[in-house]
Known about the structure:
The protein is an alpha+beta fold. The protein has one domain (27-133). It has helices at residues 2-18, 32-46, 107-113; strands at residues 55-65, 68-77, 80-91, 95-106, 122-133. The protein has a five-stranded antiparallel β-sheet with strand order 1-2-3-4-5.
Amino acid sequence: xxxxxxxxxxxxxxxxxxxxxASAAASKYLGRPLAEQISRKTIADxxxxxxxxxxxxxxxxxxxxxxxxxxxxxxxxxDTSYVSSLRARTxxxxxxxxxxxxxxxxxxxxxxxxxxxPEQCIGHHQVGPVIWRITYY
Length: 137
């Protein structure tokens, strides 16, 4: 009985202390255009091949909540194709963080060099986390 009462007291105290006042610096709503733009900038900083790309696509179709979006960036450069899955999130004080993974496919390796075992031609890279300072106008 004493253990349950102690546990209930600790949990309720944690909930009371964890609740932030409404006037605290809250994270702002994250719009799709901003998330797509910052996702492209993050990828361009990580991969120099972004500037020599043949084609690209940036989409943020999945809203996780009001401050978070899942974005997908894909592009190709020469015989290599890239697909990135990124999570964009706003933070307090006009900051934004982007993190995720990129899968790299070497098409020449997959179809010519190692057609029997294409898993040798696929690589995975981590992107971020990268923190950006954003300005709202």
